[in-house]
Design goal:
The chain is α/β, with parallel strands linked by helices and 455 residues long. The protein is 39% helix and 16% strand.
Length: 455
């Protein structure tokens, strides 16, 4: 018996032990206290599964960092990277290369409205950095409004835009970012009784923030079309349309962050398509554009903003902008998603299996306060008390209860994405009905652990 990487289980365990030893000796991990972590070793992956250092196969309901939309080791994407490497491994970004041109065409065909110019970056954070730079240069203004409960990346501007605790150690109050409250019915800041009220009050709060900050000082408003790491809070009807109206009213650029929610994750190419007629001025992407096989991100740009730089140089660039290996992977990914109906599969599995299945779990597990999501992009809000909505872990932290739930999932063969008091159910967009139901069964058992902590 061999694993997908061609190794026997004994060979894989030996290689994993060596990799772990070297990791702990030399690798500095992100977002971590280095002496307090015990990272899992992954030795192989295929489709919706990964194999850990002990040879255990795990159903990947995390899509790693919600980016392997097409699944692990898709043969068409692997072949495309290999073929591109044999043809042209790298080229300076000022030169035309076939892979980048074709990737730009395929992306532009799928972005909403007339967002037909594509600036390529290395990932999502620098896509956000450049989108903000474009907005500031286009408007001649500096401030950017971003919501609390958001994540936009770990680089300097992106982390200051972020509305979660990872911003705090990096926030010195001089970034030009102003935060506001977005709609979130379950933990509403607006004391609303339904979606209509939540939308109206959230938009009134945003317009008041604009007024108090000075409309003429604000370059952009940036929003995740559906916030991801912050909790998969699908905006209520009318909210994003209302933001678009406010931006038009005050001459503010609307940036849609689709780094996590784009490329099939919600059952559409881009999450903003769920909100009819809403077209941003700039749209950032990464992750699912090529399922993370080679680092890639970018900004889709409206004609008006693109024209700003027709005769004025854009003051920004990256050595690896539109890297041939990365863009070849994007071409293969987008074509495979189209040919194999992968976006449609995400929509179907979400509507027919994951959504109903998770709501059924909520009926039977008192630890589930709310289920929310679209496509293969779902969150379970875990609570100690449904009446008070006390979270199972504090905002910005974890708890023994959450640690126990994650351990129960892993012991049963399920890899999950966790943030604070939430379990995110985010398998690859290729997930089959059987795999989705298997994951739900494991969650059903693991949530008994959470139920023990309910008041």
């Amino acid at each position: 018996m061999t694993l997908p990487n061609g190794l026997t289980p004994d060979q894989a365990r030996h290689a994993a032990a060596r990799a772990y030893e070297l990791d702990r000796r030399h690798v500095f991990h992100s977002w971590s206290a280095q002496a307090q972590i015990n990272p899992m070793t992954i030795t192989a992956a295929r489709g919706c599964h990964v194999w850990d250092g002990d040879g255990n196969r795990l159903l990947d309901f995390s899509s790693q960092l919600v980016n392997t939309n097409i699944g692990h080791q898709h043969p068409k994407v692997v072949a495309a990277v290999q073929e591109q490497a044999a043809k042209l491994c790298t080229v300076a970004p000022q030169h035309v290369n076939e892979a980048r041109s074709e990737a730009a065409r395929l992306i532009a065909e799928r972005t909403p409205g007339a967002l037909n110019k594509i600036f390529f970056t290395n990932g999502g954070a620098d896509a956000v950095e450049h989108a903000v730079r474009m907005a500031r240069l286009h408007t001649g203004r500096y401030k950017v409004l971003a919501r609390y409960r958001s994540y936009h990346g770990g680089t300097e501007t992106a982390i200051n835009l972020t509305g979660d605790p990872r911003r705090w150690p990096n926030d010195h109050g001089n970034s030009g970012v102003v935060h506001f409250f977005g709609p979130f019915r379950y933990r509403s800041q607006f004391h609303s009784s339904d979606d209509t009220e939540e939308t109206e009050r959230a938009l009134a709060h945003l317009e008041q923030t604009i007024a108090f900050e000075g409309p003429s000082t604000i370059a952009a408003i940036i929003l995740e079309s559906v916030p991801g790491t912050a909790g998969i809070m699908v905006p209520p009807p009318g909210y994003l349309a209302g933001v678009r109206t406010l931006c038009d009213k005050y001459g503010i650029i609307f940036i849609a962050d689709e780094v996590m929610s784009g490329f099939g994750r919600t059952g559409k190419w881009f999450a903003i398509e769920h909100f009819e007629g809403v077209v941003p001025d700039l749209l950032t992407f990464a992750k699912g554009v090529n399922s993370g096989y080679v680092p890639l991100g970018g900004v889709a740009i409206s004609p008006v903003i693109a024209a700003t730089f027709d005769d004025r140089p854009y003051p920004g660039g990256l050595t690896y902008s539109g890297h041939p290996l990365a863009t070849a992977a994007a071409v293969a990914t987008i074509n495979a998603m189209t040919d194999e109906g992968i976006v449609e599969n995400a929509a179907d599995i979400g509507a027919r299996v994951l959504g109903p299945g998770l709501r059924d779990l909520a009926e039977r597990h008192p630890s589930i306060g709310e289920v929310r999501g679209l496509g293969v992009f779902w969150a379970l809000e875990l609570v100690r008390d449904r009446a008070t909505r006390e979270p199972l872990a504090p905002y910005g932290g974890t708890s023994p209860a959450m640690t126990e739930v994650v351990a129960a999932c892993r012991a049963a063969g399920l890899l999950v994405f966790v943030n604070f008091n939430r379990l995110h159910v985010v398998p690859p967009c290729i997930v089959g009905e059987g795999e989705a139901k298997e994951g739900l069964t494991i969650l059903d058992d693991a949530l008994l652990t959470a139920d023990k902590h309910v008041a």
